[in-house]
Design a protein that fits this description.
The chain is about 55% helix and about 10% strand. It is α/β, with parallel strands linked by helices and about 350 residues long. The protein folds into three domains: about 120 residues, Rossmann fold (3-Layer(aba) Sandwich); about 70 residues, Helicase, Ruva Protein, domain 3 (Orthogonal Bundle); about 130 residues, Zinc Finger, Delta Prime, domain 3, CATH 1.20.272. The strands form two sheets. A five-stranded parallel beta sheet has the order 2-3-4-1-5, sandwiched between helices. The chain has a two-stranded parallel ribbon with strand order 6-7. Helix 5 links the parallel strand 3 and strand 4.
Length: about 350
């Protein structure tokens, strides 16, 4: 069944035990993934990923995994991403099974009205579907304010707008930024703090400067231009965190697209399906990056970027400008080998 308008938050934060299949689909895959993660957290469960392509030859696998008791005795959620029509037979068997131990979360991109998977999830009483649309600027600012409140952050509209813009209206990135800002200010719902421009300039989203352009030079393997850009950066390393955040933002955008390519979609088809969700000037660059990086490579870069950010925040890394330069050059060289 379709989630009622405005009820999806309650549906994932207070899950109905009778629902065994959740389909989160639409153009905003970051929102879909975030909803799935909220469900996992509400169930105090672990994620067990299954490759959707494996269900094509073995539709019973999904029911078997969802029906198995976790070997450590805890709760688990079966995770399918990117889900597509090849999962339909497996989901039908799942919904027809007499009993299951674990629910299944499926993250899909844009699905047409003729999609069998969507029709099944929309109509079955044991399934729940929700479509995630791209945020516009006003909705993104409202989301920043609402999520900030849950972190114990109060802010003026102009601050919310800066965060939304710096995160490209990406829900997952917004949530990550707000969590870091709350930690920096020692804020919590029980001890709220005012988020001002000074705190945002210190650790907030990358606003101002071509930080995303520097990250893109590394991911596209342009070593020469990257070297020139690094030479022009602040020698004190004040730009290091914003550049890393921009790199992480680009990785968050690339990962679900690359996963669709790994699942069998052509790069051209995926790029066409993105529509207005991707700025037209960025499309050639993104297409080139998709040809240079597979999912495992993107995951390794994301892991290393997160580790570098934590070390820089703790102050136990080499000088920030030096550490950032070494990491970005290593990424660029790896991209050229692919």
């Amino acid at each position: 069944m379709k989630a009622a308008k405005g009820s999806i938050g309650r549906s994932v934060d207070q899950p109905d035990p009778s629902i065994r299949f959740y389909l989160f689909h639409g153009t905003d895959e970051s929102q879909s993934s975030a909803l799935g993660e909220r469900l996992v957290a509400a169930l105090k469960a672990s994620k067990q990923a299954i490759a959707p392509a494996s269900l094509r030859s073995d539709p019973a696998l999904l029911t078997d995994e969802a029906g198995a008791i976790d070997m450590f005795g805890g709760s688990k959620v079966i995770w399918l991403q990117p889900a597509s029509e090849e999962s339909l037979a497996a989901v039908e068997a799942l919904l027809d099974a007499p009993a299951l131990e674990s629910p299944v979360v499926a993250i899909a991109g844009r699905l047409t009205k003729t999609s069998g998977l969507l029709k099944l999830a929309d109509s079955h009483p044991r399934a729940l579907s929700h479509v995630s649309y791209e945020l516009d600027a006003r909705d993104a600012e409202r989301l920043v304010t609402e999520l900030g409140r849950t972190e114990g952050l109060r802010m003026q509209p102009i601050i919310a707008a800066r965060i939304a813009e710096g995160c490209s209206n990406d829900r997952r990135m917004i949530a990550q930024e707000l969590a870091k800002l709350a930690l920096y200010l020692h804020a919590s719902p029980n001890a709220p703090k005012e988020l001002d421009s000074e705190a945002l300039d210190a650790v907030g989203a990358a606003i101002g400067g071509d930080f995303l352009g520097i990250a893109d030079l590394a991911l596209s393997g342009d070593v020469r231009s990257l070297g020139e850009a690094l030479a022009d950066m602040d020698e004190g390393g004040r730009d290091a965190i914003p550049v890393i955040r921009s790199l992480q933002r680009r990785l968050l955008m690339l990962a679900p697209i690359r996963a669709r390519v790994d699942a069998g979609d052509s790069v051209a088809a995926v790029m066409t399906s993105m529509g207005k969700a991707l700025f037209w000037k960025d499309k050639p660059l993104v297409e080139r990056m998709l040809g240079m990086w597979d999912s495992s490579g993107l995951a390794r870069v994301a892991e290393r970027a997160g580790d570098l950010e934590r070390r820089l925040m703790r102050g136990d890394a080499p000088p920030p400008a030096e550490a950032l330069g070494e990491e970005l050059v290593a990424i660029a060289r790896q991209a050229r080998r692919r």
